[in-house]
Amino acid sequence: MKKAIQLLQSVGGQSQDLQDLGIPEETIKVLIEKGIIEPLGYRLKKTSPPTFPYSLISDPLPLFLHGWFSAACRERLQTLIEKHNVQTIVELGSWLGQSTLFMASLLPERGRLYAVDHWEGPENLQTPCVYKQFLSNVIHAQLTHKIVPLRTTTQEASKDFESRVDLIYIDACHEEEAVYQDLKDWFPIAKKWGSLLCGDDFYWKKEKGYPVQKALNRFCREENLTYVNTDVFWEIIR
After folding, report:
1. What local confidence, expressed as pLDDT, does residue 160 receive?
2. Structure pTM?
């Protein structure tokens, strides 16, 4: 049953067809009987009142999980989180929370995911509702106790971040200089705690010469490190 709840949380706390998620019919019946999900719409029922900043959202927006989170990233992140018993994650770039919910659903109940984003989006995607939509999605998924939003830039967040972290996931701005700076800013933290350091969009923007790859090559050359990629997912080997 725990696995079924995790699967439901990973997609935002609701689904029209739970069997498509791999949840058996008998488990669905038990979840309904125990009052964990609503029988219509298969939505997780609300539990305890949300804390700040989620408490600011009195009228959550409907679930909306637009994003660019590939199967390769899902599979590799799940493997890393489970294999290394990850308790704490820092995600650089959360957008509407598709990857955030997936990773947080895999953490233990006392686990934490720090979601770092300014929630203003790229210039061509700016909308005043992005942050509210992110918070709303986390509320729907019943993951407010695990996900800590840090509304700031990735560079500013690195200056003040002192908590232990097991995995750092870089998925903010994909331009070469931005990725390189994120690696420079967060590698000392990863080195301090022995954190896994990984990210997304390895093949982003062929017409620009793959900026993420350029940043990785440059950084790893300077630090005498190596990396591997699984499709669009990359990870630094130390």
Report:
1. 87
2. 0.87
